[in-house]
Design a protein that fits this description.
α3 runs antiparallel to α16, α12 runs antiparallel to α13 and α13 runs antiparallel to α14. By secondary structure, this protein is mainly α. The protein has 18 helices and no strands. The radius of gyration is 22 Å and the shape is globular.
């Protein structure tokens, strides 16, 4: 990984102009690229060997990396929001950053949900056999079946300051961080406030030193994650009876990744290829960890040192987007809800598709950036409606692959929102 630099790169240098020369900070690192590709291929090859000892070692290494990034992600989210909002009283640009981030988030999330629903209308997955639903009736744990939407939203409100940190509840962490940040911004300008803000900024710099050290060893983690993916795929997790459903979800994700988000970047005068090359470490990390929250440290470092985004923007926009900018989740909620409801006997017409597109956007914004977050959110919705949640049990074996692609899409979208916001406010 490249070392962190305090010298910010002008985001406008990424504009899609043929003669524009990229800064050395954002130039393509061929050595790093080939190292990442090499460990990726090696990991996939190791998984195909189906050696139990290798699988166990890969699982241990992958678990270690996931836990380490999750450990760093929680304080990174909190400190990024607190330190940014603490300057709200003296820096009015924070309001503009927040406004641009929310607008781009809503637009990209809505686009993702629409793309997913359009594919659903075109491919039209059929109904599953009643006998298959009965055989999977117990595939979803009872405690998840009974988890209501009210429980989900109540879980966001913490009963103390430490619980969100200990549980890794991203929404609760953001709620507390927003409150603390605004409170600090309202404190009188005295020595107490100065010591507090300097202390928080020092802790933030300490975290980034730890993040850079962990990123330096990341190829080992990617090797393990790739081995896991290959071993699962060769084990035959795909279910033929829901092939069309899977095709809808995956096609929608790839159209959003390859066409819709690049069009957003082009509309703002940014070169999608340059932005993607800068953010590829974060996108690949998201693919294997299946957690945009755990990937946040990599996303922030890539945005600042490779894409040239000002830390003032990246350290506010990216933690915010990790929670509310869920392109892949919006598509999954919309498509999966329609699929489950269809198997429950509901007629899927145009009005139903429009309704669930809106619902998907709203609930995707409230989803947590953790593995299987979209699955649990959709399950909560379907349970509250009395829909056949056994369908969710049938989806579960293939959700690992879906979750990987969706998380990569979410982080790529976060990167695009950050790049567009940085470009607009430069």
């Amino acid at each position: 990984m490249e070392t962190h630099s305090n010298k910010n790169v002008n985001p406008s240098s990424l504009a899609a102009e043929p003669d524009a020369r990229p800064n050395t900070t954002t130039s393509f690192n061929r050595t790093q690229f080939f190292v990442w590709i090499g460990v990726l291929v090696a990991g996939l090859a190791l998984g195909l060997l189906k050696v139990e000892a290798i699988d166990k070692v890969a699982n241990v290494i992958a678990t270690i990396y996931t836990r380490l990034f999750q450990t760093l992600a929680v304080p990174t989210i909190a400190l990024a929001v607190v330190t940014t909002l603490a300057s709200f009283g003296k820096d009015r640009t924070v309001g503009r950053i927040f406004g641009r981030s929310v607008v781009y988030t809503l637009l990209t999330t809505l686009a993702a949900a629409i793309v997913g629903v359009v594919f659903y209308a075109v491919i039209r997955p059929g109904k599953l056999p009643a006998g298959l639903l009965l055989s999977y009736n117990g595939a979803v744990p009872e405690n998840l079946k009974n988890f209501s939407l009210a429980d989900h939203f109540l879980s966001v409100v913490p009963d103390n300051f430490l619980r969100p940190m200990l549980e890794g509840n991203v929404l609760s962490i953001l709620l507390v961080a927003f409150a603390v940040g605004f409170a600090i911004s309202r404190m009188p300008q005295n020595r107490g406030k100065e010591v507090l803000t300097h202390g928080l900024e020092g802790l933030q710099e300490l975290l980034f030193i730890l993040i850079r050290g962990l990123n330096w060893t990341l190829p080992l983690g990617i090797l393990a994650f790739a081995e896991q993916l290959s071993a699962q795929a060769s084990g035959g997790v795909m279910v033929d009876t829901i092939g069309k459903y899977v095709a809808v979800v995956i096609c929608g994700n790839f159209v959003q990744i390859l066409f819709v988000l690049p069009l957003f970047l082009l509309a703002r005068g940014l070169n999608p290829l340059k932005v993607f090359r800068a953010m590829v470490p974060a996108v690949l990390m998201a693919l294997f960890t299946k957690s945009s929250a755990a990937t946040l440290p990599v996303t922030m470092q890539s945005a600042e040192t490779r894409l040239g985004i000002s830390p003032k923007i990246s350290r506010f926009v990216l933690p915010l987007c990790t929670t509310i900018n869920m392109n892949g989740c919006a598509a999954f909620i919309a498509v999966t809800s329609l699929f489950v409801l269809q198997n429950g006997g509901l007629s899927i017409d145009f009005a139903t598709m429009v309704t669930w597109t809106v619902i998907a956007v709203i609930f995707a914004i409230g989803n947590a950036g953790v593995p299987m977050g979209c699955y649990f959110m959709t399950l909560s919705l379907m349970t509250g409606m009395g829909a056949p949640v056994a369908v969710m049990g049938i989806i579960l074996p293939v959700y690992t692959i879906i979750d990987m692609i969706e998380t990569a899409e979410n982080v790529w979208s976060d990167s695009c929102v950050c790049a567009m916001t940085g470009h607009d406010l430069d």
